[in-house]
């Protein structure tokens, strides 16, 4: 259809349409445009009416004339009450009712008919202005009063459903648009003459977008400026403006007025540019449609995130509307007013005159960004945080200064035995507030503020700008908003929702994230809460038939989640989910803190799972705390999960058969990956309150938080779509501030994090820990170790070199890791070769790892120390010594002249020289080493006879049968020797010490256990081992026994990093030994924090054993590097590869 | 302060509880590896009736390494120089970790009883000793009277 033709049809329709609201007619004209602005367009007529009459709206006397309104509505059936009101108002003050009605109706039709021709503006020659792209006209100083005209597409919708009335409109800004003449004009357009904005096609959406949602055609083709007077097209607007106008112009939510301000006072030829001022207004409809739109968009969001299906027309329409709004706000420079002024202090009156170039630039930028919006479908990307981002996030979000000022709540003695620290009392206040248990909080006054007036972070606050529209400049007839003294409005540009009231998030969520740093006593705080509110006190009331509380005012705008008790409600039980190693610790802490003997806790693990439901819901006194492990939950879940349907079968006995009163998950970052079975299983547990305890809510991805939010069911963020749009996507687009802003506003109400370094109101540290000293003790290889190490080093170096030369280093990454692993094992103990590092899980796939370690014969010769002593020689020595010590008992009474121990204990520690003198193994070895180092002859300390270190003997204890045998010192690892030495020294100095020995190789723990027990008599040292192989019961026994102080014994806990690196509280020990370095320094720090935490009273001393000139030294360098570069690697995959290669190179420098 | 090996504690205790006749050794309050030592001059020696003050220090590597012993009192002896340093094999090459503080001090005492000018440390004294032993002994007595009160 030619544009002219279109115009004619429209004009012809106009008068009729308005009278009869003939739906058929619209189909001719802009018929298809309902696709575009559907529910919005239908209000067009209301808009028009109210535009005409709005000035009078709200006048009091009208409200009395209900009858008159009715009569008017009889005549004009589709009129709303308020419209009728307006008409009446305008009809004047005649005393005769009939006359008034007649007048009103007359006005109605008259105004409709005459509208297009009212344009009789005073005109004035515009001063010449350089034409260019888009320009702000806030500063336009146009003098002549021109009656502003309302420009409308009269061919638009008639109402179908709702008929909101435009009660007012308000100026939000204007722009200067450089338009392009599409028709020649006979004479110059008059300055200030009103132009109409017309959509030439309403079927445009189909033309504008491909099926995949990409834009294919220019919107500018479909938006025209029309001279009102001449009824003919004048020109078109640039694309960026068209993109605003096209989706919005037919809506009565917004109002646009275009005024001719410059055409160089010449007649226009096709292609000439002229400048138009475009005034933009928001109308009341925008704010009224709010709730209706909400529904739309919510469903839309849900759908569109379900992985980029082809966007429906409806979605396209909403999207183009949304983008248009964003673009519009940008063009008119309507900036957000920050809730907290600090965030955006730049807000003020927009600059009066904006430099043209700049404006052009920003304009094109906007178009660009809009384009990327349109084109880029949301895609899943790595969004790994780098360490600085993490820091700033923690800083801005999680360390809440305000937590200092929380009132303190002291739990009642009847329920909680222990004394809480000050910040723990504050934490309890916060937790109780989060649970809405306000009556238990000490300082009730502060309770109102719990969720504060948290503005929904998706919403932005805008200040209404001063009305600088053409119309208001020229005359004062339209002063529609004068009655509004509201300064601000709120808009959610993401969804296109508007509101005058502040959109407050009121979350119904009971629970939150207690993210206090490690060692601040999250467990204790949580127990204080559990014991303060052991069961759902509201439950009995809930059973009352009326159930009114469900509908209370707390319903959030974004919808709330209401948990119906579909499952039996274990309203007296809190489920605590913990890593296995913490099971008994939780139980112990519970026993320690509970003062009411009737309250008990139970461990739900392994064993008998049947009857849980009965226990919890039918029993009179169910356990108030049920402790279980992640593994148990996942196991039960896996059992219930129907593999075929992917749905859970209903459970009748286990954890999933009831709804708990409360769930607490400890070390909650366990579920940070929402795709793991563990995470999924936990998400499916039901409870009315949900808590997460974690010291590290984010490990390295922003999305780590999502899992936590999902677990808590924090609406709406728990919908993956919301999270993606407002957090992940902006983050991927490097829009960090926006992402972090959203994250911090999501988290602020639900998270409490304090760090050890924080100070309380009085400036005191939250926790004063005794000092900690970490020493690196360098150990040198003995001869055989050195040979072995060199052998493996050569192999590894060759492999790396090969990889570097060929450039496929990373392909061989895991092979190289195996090589590295071998080197690390040799550093610890040669017996480790062939065993697995439990932390290098990515290696398990590698075949090389399981292959037996083959060692060249040459090497094995070199590493076997006694090869130069013949058996006969040894036998001779042994028989000689046997004659010297004919009695076994003599062997148990030997004295070491070096350390003056008497007797040498255990007897296996005895090392005899050829000359028959006895020493402790360590003493004589140390002596030999010392002498060799000084290049001095090794002589027997007792008789000065030369000692051959290959001809040493020891005593074998074979079921209490003592026997002198050859001493094979080569099997001892230097590291263990150093450890034993250090332990001996410690034991010498003070018996009754407790020490923790960490290693990442659990087989190394076995070796250490063997060797340490051979070095210490059981009367002076006790060895405990804690690793993943222990059962739950054994674990708690080990920990309990280790913690029991025994002044006569040195207690040594051999701890596997993986099993014991987190959560355990080992403050009874003040010394730790790290047997092998870890790649990640933070893991080591975490392990050290097992002993350096609250409750530690002694100075903490940590010794890290590092083999000299070995890969371990280089690992230290990599640790340093990680500390400085940030442990969490950048999102950039290339960068990560580069770093890996660099690290491998560092290892083999 | 670095921790003290059990052996040192044991030795110290024994030195106090079961002292060697003519020898005292007291660990310093601030440093248990530093001992203030006195040795009485052996009878029938030029150092008879003298009480000599010494200092003894146990290095970190003790007992792998010998203790450091030095005379504080001025003494006229061919194996002890003006700074009080002692030339004694068990303090040097013949040290063995089986030796102890008490054995070292006994050796020092024995050295006073039998000076060995053929392995001198103080060369001038040793020369005097060899040239005119009586004169040297008289001088040693005189010094003892003068300084070792």
Largest sheet of chain A: 7 strands, parallel
The string of secondary-structure elements of chain B, in order, is: HEEEEHHH
Pick out the low-confidence regions of chain A. 1-64, 112-163, 291-311, 339-383, 444-453, 476-483, 541-563, 837-844, 1127-1131
User: How large is the radius of gyration of chain A?
Assistant: 40 Å
Which superfamily, in CATH terms, is the homologous superfamily of chain B? Ubiquitin Conjugating Enzyme
Instruction: Return the CATH topology of chain B.
Output: Ubiquitin Conjugating Enzyme
Percent of sequence in beta strands of chain A: 5-15%
Secondary structure: helix percent of chain B: 25-40%
Q: According to CATH, what is the class of the domain at 404-451 and 511-542 and 567-638 and 654-752 in chain A?
A: Alpha Beta
Instruction: Write down how many β-strands of chain A occur, each being a DSSP E stretch of 2 or more residues.
Output: 28
Strand order of the largest sheet of chain A: 14-15-13-16-17-12-18
Structural class of chain B: alpha+beta
CATH superfamily of the domain at 404-451 and 511-542 and 567-638 and 654-752 in chain A: Tandem AAA-ATPase domain
Name the pair of protein chains with the most residues at their interface, and give those residue counts: A-B, 18 and 18 residues
Total count of helical runs of at least 4 residues of chain A: 39
């Amino acid at each position: 259809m030619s544009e002219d033709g279109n115009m004619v049809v429209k004009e012809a329709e106009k008068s009729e349409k308005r009278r009869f609201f003939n739906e058929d007619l619209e189909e001719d004209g802009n018929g298809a445009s309902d696709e575009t602005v559907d529910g919005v367009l239908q209000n067009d007529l209301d808009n028009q009416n109210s535009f005409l009459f709005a000035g009078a709206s709200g006048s009091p006397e009208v409200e009395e004339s209900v009858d008159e309104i009715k009569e008017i509505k009889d005549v004009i059936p589709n009129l709303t009450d308020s419209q009728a009101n307006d008409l009446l108002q305008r009809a004047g003050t005649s005393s005769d009712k009939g006359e008034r009605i007649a007048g009103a109706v007359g006005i109605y039709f008259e105004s409709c008919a005459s509208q297009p021709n009212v344009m009789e503006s005073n005109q004035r020659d515009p001063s010449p202005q350089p034409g260019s792209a888009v320009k702000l006209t806030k500063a336009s100083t146009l003098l002549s009063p021109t009656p502003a005209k309302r420009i409308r597409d009269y061919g638009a919708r008639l109402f179908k459903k709702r008929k909101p009335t435009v009660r007012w409109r308000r100026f939000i800004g204007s722009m200067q648009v450089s338009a392009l003449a599409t028709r020649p004009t006979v004479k110059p357009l008059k300055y200030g003459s009103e132009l109409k904005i017309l959509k030439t096609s309403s079927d445009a959406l189909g033309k504008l977008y491909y099926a995949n949602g990409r834009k294919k055609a220019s919107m500018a083709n479909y938006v025209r400026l029309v001279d009102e007077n001449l009824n003919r097209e004048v020109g078109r607007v640039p694309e960026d403006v068209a993109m605003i106008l096209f989706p919005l112009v037919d809506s009565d939510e917004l109002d646009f007025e275009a005024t001719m301000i410059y055409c160089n006072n010449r007649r226009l030829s096709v292609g000439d540019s002229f400048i138009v001022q475009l005034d933009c207004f928001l109308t009341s409809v925008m704010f009224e449609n709010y709730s209706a739109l909400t529904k739309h968009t919510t469903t839309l969001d849900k759908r569109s995130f379900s992985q980029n299906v082809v966007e429906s027309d409806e979605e396209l329409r909403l999207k183009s509307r949304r983008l248009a709004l964003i673009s519009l706000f940008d063009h008119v420079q309507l900036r957000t007013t920050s809730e907290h002024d600090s965030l955006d202090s730049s807000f003020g009156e927009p600059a009066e005159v904006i430099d043209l170039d700049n404006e052009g630039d920003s304009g094109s930028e906007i178009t660009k960004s809009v384009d990327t919006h349109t084109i880029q479908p949301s895609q899943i990307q790595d969004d790994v945080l780098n360490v600085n981002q993490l820091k700033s996030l923690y800083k801005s979000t999680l360390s809440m200064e305000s937590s200092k000022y929380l009132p303190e709540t002291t739990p009642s003695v009847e329920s909680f035995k222990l004394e809480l620290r000050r910040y723990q009392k504050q934490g309890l206040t916060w937790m109780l507030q989060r649970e809405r248990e306000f009556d238990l909080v000490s300082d009730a006054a502060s309770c109102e503020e719990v969720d504060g007036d948290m503005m929904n972070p998706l919403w932005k606050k805008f200040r209404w700008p001063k009305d600088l529209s053409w119309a208001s400049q020229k005359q004062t007839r339209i002063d529609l908003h004068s009655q509004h003294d509201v300064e601000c409005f709120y808009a959610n540009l993401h969804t296109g929702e508007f509101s005058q009231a502040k959109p407050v998030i009121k979350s119904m969520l009971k629970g939150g994230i207690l993210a206090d740093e490690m060692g601040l006593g999250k467990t204790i705080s949580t127990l204080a809460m559990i014991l303060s509110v052991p069961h759902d006190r509201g439950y009995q009331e809930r059973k009352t038939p009326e159930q009114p509380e469900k509908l209370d005012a707390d319903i959030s705008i974004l919808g709330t989640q209401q948990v119906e008790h579909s499952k039996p409600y274990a309203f007296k039980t809190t489920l605590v989910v913990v890593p296995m190693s913490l099971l008994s610790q939780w139980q112990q802490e519970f026993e320690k803190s509970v003062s009411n003997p009737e309250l008990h806790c139970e461990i739900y693990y392994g064993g008998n799972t049947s009857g849980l439901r009965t226990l919890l819901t039918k029993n009179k006194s169910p356990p108030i705390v049920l402790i279980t492990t992640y593994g148990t939950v996942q196991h039960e879940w896996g059992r219930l999960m129907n593999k075929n349907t992917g749905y859970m079968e209903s459970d009748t006995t286990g954890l999933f058969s009831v709804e708990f009163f409360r769930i607490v998950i400890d070390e909650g970052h366990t579920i940070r990956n929402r795709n793991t079975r563990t995470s999924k299983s936990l998400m499916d547990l039901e409870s009315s309150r949900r808590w997460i305890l974690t010291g590290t809510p984010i490990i390295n991805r922003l999305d780590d938080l999502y899992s936590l939010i999902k677990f808590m069911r924090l609406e709406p963020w728990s919908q993956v779509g919301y999270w993606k749009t407002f957090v992940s996507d902006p983050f991927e687009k490097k829009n960090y501030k926006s992402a972090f802003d959203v994250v911090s506003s999501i988290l602020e109400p639900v998270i409490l994090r304090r760090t050890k370094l924080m100070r309380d109101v009085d400036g005191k540290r939250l926790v004063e820990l005794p000092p900690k000293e970490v020493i690196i003790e360098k150990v040198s290889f003995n001869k055989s170790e050195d040979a072995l190490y060199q052998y493996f080093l050569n192999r590894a170096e060759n492999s790396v070199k090969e990889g570097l030369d060929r450039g496929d280093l990373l392909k061989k990454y895991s092979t190289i890791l195996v090589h590295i692993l071998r080197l690390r094992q040799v550093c610890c103990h040669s017996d480790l070769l062939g065993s697995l590092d439990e932390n290098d899980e990515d290696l398990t796939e590698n075949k090389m790892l399981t292959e037996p370690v083959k060692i060249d014969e040459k090497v094995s010769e070199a590493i076997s120390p006694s090869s130069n002593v013949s058996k006969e020689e040894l036998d001779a020595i042994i028989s000689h010594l046997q004659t010297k010590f004919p009695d076994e008992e003599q062997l148990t009474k030997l004295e070491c002249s070096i350390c003056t121990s008497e007797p040498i204990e255990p007897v296996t520690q005895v090392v005899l020289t050829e000359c028959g003198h006895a020493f402790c193994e360590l003493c004589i070895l140390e002596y030999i080493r010392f002498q060799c180092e000084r290049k001095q002859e090794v002589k027997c300390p007792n008789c000065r006879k030369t000692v051959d270190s290959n001809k040493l003997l020891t005593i074998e204890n074979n079921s209490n049968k003592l026997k002198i045998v050859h001493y094979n010192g080569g099997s001892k690892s230097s590291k263990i020797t150093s450890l034993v030495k250090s332990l001996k020294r410690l034991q010498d100095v003070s018996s009754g010490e407790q020490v923790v020995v960490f290693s990442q190789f659990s087989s190394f723990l076995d070796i250490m256990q063997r060797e340490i027990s051979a070095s210490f008599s059981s009367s002076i040292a006790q060895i405990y081992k804690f690793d993943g192989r222990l059962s739950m019961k054994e674990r708690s026994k080990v920990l309990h026994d280790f913690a029991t102080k025994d002044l006569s014994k040195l207690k040594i806990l051999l701890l596997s990093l993986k099993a014991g690196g987190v959560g355990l509280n080992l403050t009874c020990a003040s010394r730790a030994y790290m047997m092998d370095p870890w790649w990640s320094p933070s893991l080591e720090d975490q392990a050290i924090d097992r002993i350096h935490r609250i409750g530690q009273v002694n100075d903490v001393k940590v010794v890290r054993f590092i083999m000299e000139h070995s890969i371990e030294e280089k690992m230290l360098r990599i640790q340093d590097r990680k500390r400085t570069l940030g442990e969490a690697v950048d999102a950039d995959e290339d960068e990560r590869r580069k770093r890996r290669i660099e690290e491998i190179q560092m290892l083999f420098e | 302060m670095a921790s003290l090996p059990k052996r040192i504690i044991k030795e110290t205790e024994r030195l106090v509880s079961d002292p060697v006749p003519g020898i005292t050794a007291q660990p310093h309050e601030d440093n248990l590896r530093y001992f203030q030592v006195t040795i009485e001059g052996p009878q029938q020696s030029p150092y008879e009736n003298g009480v000599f003050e010494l200092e003894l220090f146990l290095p970190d590597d003790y007992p792998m390494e010998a203790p450091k012993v030095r005379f504080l009192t001025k003494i006229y002896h061919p194996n002890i120089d003006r700074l009080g340093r002692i030339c004694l094999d068990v303090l040097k090459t013949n040290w063995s970790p089986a030796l102890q503080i008490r054995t070292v001090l006994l050796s020092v005492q024995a050295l006073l009883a039998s000076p060995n000018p053929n392995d001198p440390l103080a060369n001038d004294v040793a020369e005097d000793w060899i040239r005119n032993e009586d004169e040297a002994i008289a001088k040693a007595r005189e010094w003892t009277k003068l300084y070792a009160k």
